[in-house]
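Practice set, problem 2.
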Amino acid sequence: MKVAVIDKNGKDTGRKADLSKDVFGIEPNNHAVYLDVKQYLANQRQGTHKAKERAEITGSTRKIKKQKGTGTARAGSIKSGIFKGGGRMFGPRPRNYSFKLNKNLKRLARKSALSIKANEKAILVLEDFNIDAPKTQDFTTVLKSLGLESKKSLFVLGESNNNLYLSSRNLKSAEVITNSELSTYKIMNANSLVLFEGSLEGIESNLSK
Protein backbone atom coordinates (compact mmCIF):
# COMPACT_ATOMS: atom_id res chain seq x y z
CA MET A 1 0.00 0.00 0.00
CA LYS A 2 1.56 3.28 -1.15
CA VAL A 3 0.96 6.50 0.78
CA ALA A 4 2.34 9.93 -0.13
CA VAL A 5 4.86 11.39 2.31
CA ILE A 6 4.11 15.00 3.25
CA ASP A 7 6.21 17.58 5.06
CA LYS A 8 5.26 19.62 8.13
CA ASN A 9 3.78 22.32 5.88
CA GLY A 10 1.31 19.81 4.45
CA LYS A 11 2.99 19.68 1.03
CA ASP A 12 3.77 16.52 -0.93
CA THR A 13 7.47 15.65 -0.86
CA GLY A 14 7.19 13.56 -4.03
CA ARG A 15 8.10 10.40 -2.13
CA LYS A 16 5.82 7.51 -1.20
CA ALA A 17 5.90 5.22 1.82
CA ASP A 18 5.13 1.55 1.37
CA LEU A 19 2.79 0.34 4.14
CA SER A 20 2.90 -3.41 4.73
CA LYS A 21 -0.28 -5.27 3.82
CA ASP A 22 0.38 -7.65 6.72
CA VAL A 23 -0.02 -4.73 9.16
CA PHE A 24 -2.17 -2.10 7.42
CA GLY A 25 -4.18 -4.27 5.04
CA ILE A 26 -5.60 -7.21 6.97
CA GLU A 27 -9.28 -8.09 7.48
CA PRO A 28 -10.05 -6.32 10.80
CA ASN A 29 -11.05 -8.50 13.74
CA ASN A 30 -13.55 -6.32 15.61
CA HIS A 31 -13.77 -8.61 18.63
CA ALA A 32 -10.00 -8.49 19.15
CA VAL A 33 -10.17 -4.68 18.99
CA TYR A 34 -13.01 -4.69 21.54
CA LEU A 35 -11.09 -6.93 23.98
CA ASP A 36 -7.88 -4.91 23.75
CA VAL A 37 -9.70 -1.59 24.27
CA LYS A 38 -11.63 -3.11 27.18
CA GLN A 39 -8.39 -4.28 28.80
CA TYR A 40 -6.76 -0.85 28.34
CA LEU A 41 -9.70 0.93 30.01
CA ALA A 42 -9.90 -1.67 32.78
CA ASN A 43 -6.21 -1.15 33.55
CA GLN A 44 -6.84 2.60 34.03
CA ARG A 45 -9.24 1.93 36.91
CA GLN A 46 -7.77 2.35 40.39
CA GLY A 47 -10.24 0.01 42.04
CA THR A 48 -9.82 1.76 45.42
CA HIS A 49 -13.57 2.28 46.00
CA LYS A 50 -14.78 1.23 49.45
CA ALA A 51 -17.95 1.57 51.53
CA LYS A 52 -18.34 0.48 55.14
CA GLU A 53 -20.61 -2.45 55.82
CA ARG A 54 -22.48 -3.13 59.08
CA ALA A 55 -19.51 -4.86 60.71
CA GLU A 56 -17.25 -1.84 60.11
CA ILE A 57 -19.27 1.13 61.37
CA THR A 58 -19.44 2.48 64.94
CA GLY A 59 -22.69 1.92 66.77
CA SER A 60 -24.40 0.18 69.68
CA THR A 61 -24.88 -3.56 69.55
CA ARG A 62 -27.91 -3.63 71.83
CA LYS A 63 -31.19 -4.90 70.47
CA ILE A 64 -33.14 -1.76 69.52
CA LYS A 65 -36.64 -3.07 70.31
CA LYS A 66 -38.29 -6.20 71.59
CA GLN A 67 -38.58 -9.15 69.27
CA LYS A 68 -42.38 -9.47 69.29
CA GLY A 69 -45.47 -7.38 69.81
CA THR A 70 -44.44 -4.19 67.97
CA GLY A 71 -46.44 -4.87 64.82
CA THR A 72 -43.36 -4.25 62.67
CA ALA A 73 -40.51 -6.39 61.42
CA ARG A 74 -38.03 -7.68 63.98
CA ALA A 75 -34.75 -5.72 64.20
CA GLY A 76 -31.61 -6.63 66.06
CA SER A 77 -29.06 -3.88 65.31
CA ILE A 78 -29.04 -0.15 64.63
CA LYS A 79 -26.12 -0.81 62.28
CA SER A 80 -28.34 -2.66 59.80
CA GLY A 81 -28.39 -1.23 56.28
CA ILE A 82 -32.13 -0.57 56.44
CA PHE A 83 -31.67 2.16 59.08
CA LYS A 84 -30.28 5.65 58.62
CA GLY A 85 -26.61 5.65 59.58
CA GLY A 86 -26.37 1.91 59.11
CA GLY A 87 -23.82 0.06 57.00
CA ARG A 88 -24.00 -0.22 53.24
CA MET A 89 -25.47 -3.47 51.95
CA PHE A 90 -23.16 -5.21 49.47
CA GLY A 91 -21.07 -2.04 49.11
CA PRO A 92 -18.08 -1.71 46.78
CA ARG A 93 -14.80 -3.21 47.93
CA PRO A 94 -11.24 -2.64 46.64
CA ARG A 95 -10.51 -4.85 43.65
CA ASN A 96 -8.24 -5.20 40.65
CA TYR A 97 -10.06 -4.80 37.33
CA SER A 98 -7.19 -5.90 35.07
CA PHE A 99 -7.36 -9.12 33.07
CA LYS A 100 -4.96 -11.00 30.84
CA LEU A 101 -4.87 -11.15 27.04
CA ASN A 102 -2.29 -13.13 25.12
CA LYS A 103 0.29 -11.36 22.95
CA ASN A 104 -1.00 -12.72 19.65
CA LEU A 105 -4.49 -11.35 20.28
CA LYS A 106 -3.13 -7.92 21.26
CA ARG A 107 -0.96 -7.89 18.12
CA LEU A 108 -3.98 -8.81 15.99
CA ALA A 109 -6.00 -6.03 17.64
CA ARG A 110 -3.38 -3.38 16.82
CA LYS A 111 -3.09 -4.57 13.22
CA SER A 112 -6.89 -4.53 12.94
CA ALA A 113 -7.04 -0.98 14.30
CA LEU A 114 -4.35 0.20 11.85
CA SER A 115 -6.18 -1.51 8.99
CA ILE A 116 -9.43 0.20 9.96
CA LYS A 117 -7.70 3.59 9.90
CA ALA A 118 -6.11 2.75 6.53
CA ASN A 119 -9.52 1.83 5.11
CA GLU A 120 -10.92 5.13 6.40
CA LYS A 121 -8.05 7.05 4.72
CA ALA A 122 -7.22 8.42 8.16
CA ILE A 123 -3.45 7.73 8.05
CA LEU A 124 -0.91 10.42 7.13
CA VAL A 125 2.81 9.71 6.68
CA LEU A 126 4.85 12.71 7.77
CA GLU A 127 8.46 13.51 6.96
CA ASP A 128 10.63 13.45 10.08
CA PHE A 129 11.21 16.89 11.55
CA ASN A 130 12.24 18.48 14.82
CA ILE A 131 11.37 21.60 16.81
CA ASP A 132 14.27 23.67 18.17
CA ALA A 133 12.58 24.35 21.51
CA PRO A 134 9.39 23.24 23.25
CA LYS A 135 6.77 25.66 21.96
CA THR A 136 3.07 24.90 21.66
CA GLN A 137 2.58 27.58 19.00
CA ASP A 138 5.03 25.83 16.65
CA PHE A 139 3.19 22.53 17.02
CA THR A 140 -0.18 24.26 16.50
CA THR A 141 1.17 25.69 13.22
CA VAL A 142 1.99 22.15 12.07
CA LEU A 143 -1.54 21.00 12.97
CA LYS A 144 -3.06 23.84 10.93
CA SER A 145 -0.83 23.03 7.96
CA LEU A 146 -2.00 19.41 8.07
CA GLY A 147 -5.66 20.43 8.53
CA LEU A 148 -5.86 18.72 11.94
CA GLU A 149 -6.47 21.67 14.26
CA SER A 150 -10.11 20.65 14.84
CA LYS A 151 -9.55 16.86 14.85
CA LYS A 152 -8.28 14.47 17.48
CA SER A 153 -4.89 13.34 16.19
CA LEU A 154 -2.20 10.88 17.26
CA PHE A 155 1.43 11.48 16.21
CA VAL A 156 3.68 8.42 16.27
CA LEU A 157 7.45 9.00 16.43
CA GLY A 158 10.21 6.57 15.59
CA GLU A 159 12.16 7.55 18.71
CA SER A 160 11.58 9.79 21.71
CA ASN A 161 11.60 13.53 20.95
CA ASN A 162 11.22 15.64 24.06
CA ASN A 163 10.64 18.96 22.26
CA LEU A 164 7.76 17.59 20.19
CA TYR A 165 6.23 15.88 23.21
CA LEU A 166 6.38 19.01 25.39
CA SER A 167 5.06 21.19 22.56
CA SER A 168 1.93 19.04 22.24
CA ARG A 169 1.32 18.36 25.93
CA ASN A 170 -1.04 21.32 26.45
CA LEU A 171 -3.27 20.38 23.52
CA LYS A 172 -6.32 18.23 24.24
CA SER A 173 -6.81 17.25 20.62
CA ALA A 174 -3.27 16.03 19.89
CA GLU A 175 -0.98 13.43 21.45
CA VAL A 176 2.62 12.50 20.64
CA ILE A 177 3.91 8.99 21.40
CA THR A 178 6.66 6.66 20.18
CA ASN A 179 5.95 3.49 18.19
CA SER A 180 6.60 1.36 21.29
CA GLU A 181 3.74 3.15 23.11
CA LEU A 182 1.21 2.51 20.35
CA SER A 183 -1.97 0.85 21.62
CA THR A 184 -5.27 -0.19 20.09
CA TYR A 185 -7.18 2.27 22.28
CA LYS A 186 -5.06 5.25 21.21
CA ILE A 187 -5.35 4.31 17.53
CA MET A 188 -9.14 3.97 17.67
CA ASN A 189 -9.55 7.07 19.85
CA ALA A 190 -7.91 9.34 17.24
CA ASN A 191 -9.64 10.76 14.17
CA SER A 192 -6.33 10.96 12.30
CA LEU A 193 -3.19 8.87 12.72
CA VAL A 194 0.02 10.70 11.77
CA LEU A 195 2.97 8.36 11.33
CA PHE A 196 6.47 9.80 11.11
CA GLU A 197 8.59 8.12 8.44
CA GLY A 198 11.00 6.90 11.08
CA SER A 199 8.24 5.08 12.96
CA LEU A 200 7.11 2.82 10.10
CA GLU A 201 9.94 0.31 10.35
CA GLY A 202 9.47 -0.06 14.12
CA ILE A 203 5.68 -0.48 13.85
CA GLU A 204 5.95 -3.10 11.13
CA SER A 205 8.74 -5.03 12.85
CA ASN A 206 6.78 -5.11 16.13
CA LEU A 207 3.55 -6.31 14.52
CA SER A 208 4.95 -8.66 11.87
CA LYS A 209 6.18 -11.20 14.42
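Problem 2, part (b): a different protein.
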Amino acid sequence: MTTPAPILLAIESSCDDTSVAVLQGFRVLANVVHSQVLHERFGGVVPELASRAHVEALMPTVAAALQRANLGYADLQGIAVTQGPGLLGSLLVGHSFAKSLSVSLGIPFVNVHHMEAHMLAHFLLEPGVQDRPMPDFPYLCLTVSGGHTQLVVVRAWNVFDVLGETQDDAVGEAYDKAAKLLSLAYPGGPIIDRWAQQGQPRFDFAQPMMPGLQFSYSGLKTSILRRMQKEVQTNPHTLETDLPDWCASIQHALIAPLVDGLIQAFKQTGIRRIALAGGVSANSWLRSEVQRCADTLEWDLYLPPLSYTTDNAAMVGAAGYFAWQAQQFGALSDTAQAKFLIHG
Protein backbone atom coordinates (compact mmCIF):
# COMPACT_ATOMS: atom_id res chain seq x y z
CA MET A 1 0.00 0.00 0.00
CA THR A 2 1.32 3.42 -0.95
CA THR A 3 1.76 5.82 1.97
CA PRO A 4 -0.16 9.08 1.42
CA ALA A 5 1.97 12.17 0.93
CA PRO A 6 2.29 14.31 4.07
CA ILE A 7 0.23 17.45 4.61
CA LEU A 8 2.58 20.40 5.00
CA LEU A 9 1.99 23.98 6.03
CA ALA A 10 4.27 26.31 4.03
CA ILE A 11 5.25 29.84 5.07
CA GLU A 12 6.87 32.57 2.96
CA SER A 13 7.87 35.96 4.41
CA SER A 14 11.12 36.90 2.68
CA CYS A 15 10.09 40.39 1.58
CA ASP A 16 6.74 42.21 1.57
CA ASP A 17 4.28 39.37 0.92
CA THR A 18 2.96 37.23 3.75
CA SER A 19 1.97 33.91 2.22
CA VAL A 20 0.79 30.61 3.66
CA ALA A 21 -0.04 27.44 1.73
CA VAL A 22 -1.27 23.96 2.58
CA LEU A 23 -0.07 21.09 0.41
CA GLN A 24 -0.36 17.34 0.32
CA GLY A 25 2.83 16.36 -1.41
CA PHE A 26 3.00 18.59 -4.47
CA ARG A 27 -0.78 19.05 -4.59
CA VAL A 28 -1.84 22.54 -3.55
CA LEU A 29 -4.81 22.57 -1.20
CA ALA A 30 -4.63 26.30 -0.44
CA ASN A 31 -2.29 29.16 -1.33
CA VAL A 32 -3.04 32.50 0.32
CA VAL A 33 -1.01 35.67 -0.26
CA HIS A 34 -1.38 38.87 1.78
CA SER A 35 0.36 41.73 -0.05
CA GLN A 36 1.60 44.82 1.77
CA VAL A 37 0.32 47.83 -0.18
CA LEU A 38 1.72 50.25 2.41
CA HIS A 39 5.08 50.41 0.58
CA GLU A 40 3.64 52.01 -2.57
CA ARG A 41 3.86 55.54 -1.16
CA PHE A 42 7.61 55.07 -0.54
CA GLY A 43 8.44 53.73 -4.01
CA GLY A 44 10.02 50.60 -2.55
CA VAL A 45 9.93 48.18 0.36
CA VAL A 46 10.73 49.65 3.79
CA PRO A 47 12.26 46.73 5.77
CA GLU A 48 11.10 47.80 9.24
CA LEU A 49 7.52 48.35 8.08
CA ALA A 50 7.57 45.04 6.21
CA SER A 51 8.58 43.01 9.26
CA ARG A 52 5.91 44.67 11.42
CA ALA A 53 3.27 43.99 8.80
CA HIS A 54 4.28 40.30 8.71
CA VAL A 55 3.71 40.08 12.47
CA GLU A 56 0.18 41.41 12.03
CA ALA A 57 -0.70 39.35 8.95
CA LEU A 58 0.84 35.95 9.62
CA MET A 59 -1.70 34.43 12.01
CA PRO A 60 -4.77 35.56 10.00
CA THR A 61 -3.13 34.25 6.81
CA VAL A 62 -2.44 30.86 8.41
CA ALA A 63 -6.05 30.70 9.55
CA ALA A 64 -7.29 31.61 6.06
CA ALA A 65 -5.12 28.94 4.41
CA LEU A 66 -6.26 26.20 6.80
CA GLN A 67 -9.88 27.22 6.37
CA ARG A 68 -9.57 27.18 2.57
CA ALA A 69 -8.01 23.70 2.75
CA ASN A 70 -10.76 22.61 5.17
CA LEU A 71 -8.11 21.38 7.63
CA GLY A 72 -6.91 22.18 11.15
CA TYR A 73 -3.59 22.26 12.96
CA ALA A 74 -4.05 18.62 14.00
CA ASP A 75 -3.99 17.55 10.34
CA LEU A 76 -0.53 18.98 9.71
CA GLN A 77 2.45 16.64 9.54
CA GLY A 78 5.19 19.16 8.91
CA ILE A 79 6.07 22.77 8.16
CA ALA A 80 8.12 24.25 5.32
CA VAL A 81 9.46 27.77 5.81
CA THR A 82 11.66 30.20 3.90
CA GLN A 83 15.01 30.52 5.66
CA GLY A 84 16.52 33.01 3.20
CA PRO A 85 17.62 34.99 1.33
CA GLY A 86 15.61 38.15 1.83
CA LEU A 87 14.99 40.92 4.35
CA LEU A 88 16.24 39.63 7.67
CA GLY A 89 13.45 41.13 9.78
CA SER A 90 10.76 39.72 7.50
CA LEU A 91 12.42 36.30 7.38
CA LEU A 92 12.73 36.15 11.17
CA VAL A 93 8.98 36.61 11.59
CA GLY A 94 8.07 33.62 9.43
CA HIS A 95 10.98 31.41 10.47
CA SER A 96 10.50 31.99 14.19
CA PHE A 97 6.78 31.30 13.87
CA ALA A 98 7.47 28.05 12.01
CA LYS A 99 9.86 26.82 14.68
CA SER A 100 7.43 27.71 17.47
CA LEU A 101 4.57 25.97 15.70
CA SER A 102 6.79 22.94 15.10
CA VAL A 103 7.48 22.64 18.83
CA SER A 104 3.89 23.24 19.91
CA LEU A 105 2.46 20.66 17.48
CA GLY A 106 5.31 18.17 17.85
CA ILE A 107 5.95 18.03 14.10
CA PRO A 108 9.19 18.66 12.13
CA PHE A 109 9.97 21.66 9.97
CA VAL A 110 12.20 22.02 6.92
CA ASN A 111 14.20 25.05 5.80
CA VAL A 112 13.71 26.29 2.24
CA HIS A 113 15.88 28.52 0.05
CA HIS A 114 13.68 31.21 -1.47
CA MET A 115 15.18 31.15 -4.98
CA GLU A 116 15.34 27.36 -5.07
CA ALA A 117 11.62 27.39 -4.26
CA HIS A 118 10.98 29.63 -7.28
CA MET A 119 12.82 27.17 -9.51
CA LEU A 120 10.94 24.17 -8.07
CA ALA A 121 7.49 25.76 -8.40
CA HIS A 122 7.07 23.85 -11.67
CA PHE A 123 6.45 20.67 -9.65
CA LEU A 124 3.29 22.04 -8.05
CA LEU A 125 -0.02 20.49 -9.01
CA GLU A 126 -3.13 22.65 -8.76
CA PRO A 127 -6.20 21.89 -10.88
CA GLY A 128 -7.01 24.73 -13.24
CA VAL A 129 -3.78 26.52 -12.38
CA GLN A 130 -0.93 24.12 -13.12
CA ASP A 131 -1.69 20.53 -14.03
CA ARG A 132 0.81 19.71 -16.80
CA PRO A 133 3.48 17.00 -16.32
CA MET A 134 6.41 17.92 -14.07
CA PRO A 135 9.78 18.64 -15.73
CA ASP A 136 12.49 16.02 -15.63
CA PHE A 137 15.93 16.85 -14.24
CA PRO A 138 18.06 18.49 -15.45
CA TYR A 139 16.39 21.61 -16.78
CA LEU A 140 17.68 25.10 -17.52
CA CYS A 141 16.00 27.86 -15.53
CA LEU A 142 16.10 31.62 -16.05
CA THR A 143 15.35 33.07 -12.62
CA VAL A 144 14.47 36.76 -12.70
CA SER A 145 13.13 38.95 -9.91
CA GLY A 146 13.66 42.19 -8.05
CA GLY A 147 16.76 40.84 -6.36
CA HIS A 148 18.02 38.08 -8.65
CA THR A 149 18.93 37.51 -12.28
CA GLN A 150 20.41 34.05 -12.83
CA LEU A 151 20.78 31.28 -15.37
CA VAL A 152 20.78 27.98 -13.49
CA VAL A 153 20.92 24.32 -14.43
CA VAL A 154 18.59 22.54 -12.00
CA ARG A 155 20.26 19.10 -11.85
CA ALA A 156 18.25 17.80 -8.88
CA TRP A 157 15.97 19.25 -6.23
CA ASN A 158 19.05 20.17 -4.18
CA VAL A 159 21.73 20.60 -6.86
CA PHE A 160 21.80 23.93 -8.71
CA ASP A 161 24.57 24.88 -11.13
CA VAL A 162 24.71 28.67 -11.62
CA LEU A 163 25.92 29.38 -15.15
CA GLY A 164 25.64 33.16 -14.98
CA GLU A 165 24.14 35.95 -12.93
CA THR A 166 23.98 39.71 -12.64
CA GLN A 167 27.19 41.39 -11.56
CA ASP A 168 25.36 44.36 -10.07
CA ASP A 169 21.62 45.09 -10.22
CA ALA A 170 18.80 42.64 -10.92
CA VAL A 171 16.42 43.11 -13.83
CA GLY A 172 13.42 43.62 -11.54
CA GLU A 173 15.21 46.39 -9.68
CA ALA A 174 16.04 48.02 -13.04
CA TYR A 175 12.34 47.97 -13.92
CA ASP A 176 11.46 49.73 -10.67
CA LYS A 177 14.14 52.41 -11.15
CA ALA A 178 13.02 53.02 -14.74
CA ALA A 179 9.42 53.32 -13.57
CA LYS A 180 10.47 55.89 -10.98
CA LEU A 181 12.19 57.95 -13.71
CA LEU A 182 8.86 57.90 -15.58
CA SER A 183 6.95 58.90 -12.41
CA LEU A 184 5.11 55.58 -12.40
CA ALA A 185 3.99 53.77 -9.25
CA TYR A 186 5.72 50.91 -7.42
CA PRO A 187 6.18 48.10 -8.30
CA GLY A 188 7.15 49.37 -11.73
CA GLY A 189 7.55 46.18 -13.74
CA PRO A 190 3.87 45.36 -14.34
CA ILE A 191 3.07 49.02 -15.11
CA ILE A 192 5.85 49.36 -17.70
CA ASP A 193 4.73 46.06 -19.20
CA ARG A 194 1.16 47.32 -19.65
CA TRP A 195 2.20 50.63 -21.21
CA ALA A 196 4.78 48.91 -23.43
CA GLN A 197 2.07 46.92 -25.15
CA GLN A 198 0.70 50.20 -26.54
CA GLY A 199 4.04 51.60 -27.77
CA GLN A 200 6.97 51.08 -30.12
CA PRO A 201 10.61 50.63 -29.02
CA ARG A 202 12.02 53.69 -30.80
CA PHE A 203 14.44 54.97 -28.12
CA ASP A 204 17.90 53.36 -28.07
CA PHE A 205 20.05 52.69 -25.02
CA ALA A 206 23.65 51.51 -24.64
CA GLN A 207 23.79 47.80 -23.81
CA PRO A 208 26.70 46.61 -21.62
CA MET A 209 29.06 44.01 -23.06
CA MET A 210 29.36 41.19 -20.53
CA PRO A 211 31.56 38.08 -20.73
CA GLY A 212 30.00 34.63 -20.98
CA LEU A 213 26.59 34.31 -19.38
CA GLN A 214 26.91 37.22 -16.97
CA PHE A 215 24.42 40.09 -16.78
CA SER A 216 24.68 43.76 -15.83
CA TYR A 217 21.91 46.31 -15.41
CA SER A 218 23.63 49.18 -13.60
CA GLY A 219 25.05 50.73 -16.76
CA LEU A 220 21.80 50.21 -18.65
CA LYS A 221 19.91 52.14 -15.96
CA THR A 222 22.37 55.01 -16.37
CA SER A 223 21.96 54.90 -20.15
CA ILE A 224 18.17 55.11 -19.80
CA LEU A 225 18.50 58.13 -17.52
CA ARG A 226 20.88 59.98 -19.86
CA ARG A 227 18.73 59.22 -22.91
CA MET A 228 15.71 60.67 -21.11
CA GLN A 229 17.63 63.78 -20.08
CA LYS A 230 18.81 64.35 -23.64
CA GLU A 231 15.32 63.89 -25.12
CA VAL A 232 13.70 66.19 -22.55
CA GLN A 233 15.99 69.03 -23.68
CA THR A 234 14.31 69.11 -27.10
CA ASN A 235 10.90 67.74 -26.08
CA PRO A 236 10.14 68.74 -22.46
CA HIS A 237 6.93 66.68 -22.26
CA THR A 238 8.20 63.52 -23.94
CA LEU A 239 8.02 61.38 -20.79
CA GLU A 240 4.28 62.05 -20.65
CA THR A 241 3.29 62.26 -24.32
CA ASP A 242 5.53 59.40 -25.46
CA LEU A 243 5.12 57.22 -22.37
CA PRO A 244 4.09 54.03 -24.26
CA ASP A 245 7.16 54.30 -26.52
CA TRP A 246 9.47 54.91 -23.59
CA CYS A 247 8.06 51.87 -21.80
CA ALA A 248 8.34 49.69 -24.92
CA SER A 249 11.94 50.82 -25.44
CA ILE A 250 12.87 50.16 -21.82
CA GLN A 251 11.14 46.80 -21.82
CA HIS A 252 12.94 45.61 -24.95
CA ALA A 253 16.29 46.79 -23.60
CA LEU A 254 15.83 45.00 -20.26
CA ILE A 255 14.49 41.75 -21.71
CA ALA A 256 16.90 41.35 -24.66
CA PRO A 257 19.93 40.29 -22.54
CA LEU A 258 17.81 37.67 -20.77
CA VAL A 259 16.65 36.04 -24.00
CA ASP A 260 20.14 36.20 -25.53
CA GLY A 261 21.61 34.65 -22.39
CA LEU A 262 19.04 31.87 -22.37
CA ILE A 263 19.84 31.01 -25.99
CA GLN A 264 23.57 30.97 -25.22
CA ALA A 265 23.02 28.75 -22.18
CA PHE A 266 20.97 26.33 -24.29
CA LYS A 267 23.72 26.13 -26.90
CA GLN A 268 26.34 25.67 -24.19
CA THR A 269 24.51 22.92 -22.28
CA GLY A 270 22.33 21.30 -24.93
CA ILE A 271 19.48 21.16 -22.41
CA ARG A 272 16.11 21.58 -24.14
CA ARG A 273 13.96 21.63 -21.01
CA ILE A 274 13.66 25.36 -20.34
CA ALA A 275 11.88 27.03 -17.42
CA LEU A 276 11.26 30.58 -16.21
CA ALA A 277 10.92 31.54 -12.55
CA GLY A 278 10.60 34.64 -10.39
CA GLY A 279 8.47 37.76 -10.49
CA VAL A 280 9.78 39.08 -13.82
CA SER A 281 8.81 35.76 -15.46
CA ALA A 282 5.28 37.22 -15.50
CA ASN A 283 6.42 39.82 -18.04
CA SER A 284 4.44 39.47 -21.27
CA TRP A 285 7.32 40.38 -23.61
CA LEU A 286 9.72 37.95 -21.93
CA ARG A 287 7.14 35.18 -22.19
CA SER A 288 6.39 35.84 -25.84
CA GLU A 289 10.07 36.03 -26.79
CA VAL A 290 10.93 32.82 -24.94
CA GLN A 291 7.92 31.09 -26.49
CA ARG A 292 9.15 32.21 -29.92
CA CYS A 293 12.56 30.71 -29.16
CA ALA A 294 10.93 27.50 -27.94
CA ASP A 295 8.99 27.16 -31.19
CA THR A 296 12.11 27.77 -33.28
CA LEU A 297 14.66 25.81 -31.24
CA GLU A 298 12.30 23.00 -30.18
CA TRP A 299 12.47 23.62 -26.47
CA ASP A 300 10.22 21.90 -23.95
CA LEU A 301 9.11 25.11 -22.25
CA TYR A 302 7.78 25.49 -18.71
CA LEU A 303 6.15 28.85 -18.03
CA PRO A 304 4.83 29.23 -14.47
CA PRO A 305 1.23 30.41 -13.98
CA LEU A 306 1.14 34.03 -12.88
CA SER A 307 0.19 33.07 -9.32
CA TYR A 308 3.49 31.17 -8.99
CA THR A 309 5.73 33.90 -10.44
CA THR A 310 5.51 36.27 -7.49
CA ASP A 311 6.48 35.27 -3.96
CA ASN A 312 4.10 32.60 -2.66
CA ALA A 313 4.10 29.84 -0.09
CA ALA A 314 3.05 27.05 -2.48
CA MET A 315 6.50 27.07 -4.06
CA VAL A 316 8.01 26.87 -0.56
CA GLY A 317 5.85 23.81 0.00
CA ALA A 318 7.16 22.18 -3.20
CA ALA A 319 10.78 22.63 -2.13
CA GLY A 320 9.80 21.57 1.39
CA TYR A 321 8.24 18.34 0.19
CA PHE A 322 11.48 17.41 -1.57
CA ALA A 323 13.39 18.05 1.67
CA TRP A 324 10.78 16.08 3.64
CA GLN A 325 11.21 13.08 1.37
CA ALA A 326 14.98 13.25 1.97
CA GLN A 327 14.36 13.59 5.74
CA GLN A 328 16.35 16.81 5.82
CA PHE A 329 14.62 18.41 8.79
CA GLY A 330 15.54 21.68 10.45
CA ALA A 331 16.86 22.19 13.98
CA LEU A 332 15.74 24.73 16.57
CA SER A 333 19.23 26.26 16.42
CA ASP A 334 18.65 27.17 12.75
CA THR A 335 17.89 30.81 12.05
CA ALA A 336 16.90 33.02 9.14
CA GLN A 337 19.65 34.18 6.78
CA ALA A 338 19.50 37.40 4.77
CA LYS A 339 22.21 36.10 2.42
CA PHE A 340 21.93 32.46 1.48
CA LEU A 341 23.75 30.79 -1.43
CA ILE A 342 21.85 28.19 -3.41
CA HIS A 343 23.02 24.60 -3.16
CA GLY A 344 25.66 23.66 -5.71
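Answer key, part (b): Residues 243-269 form the longest helix (27 residues). Residues 11 and 81 are 5 Å apart (CA to CA).
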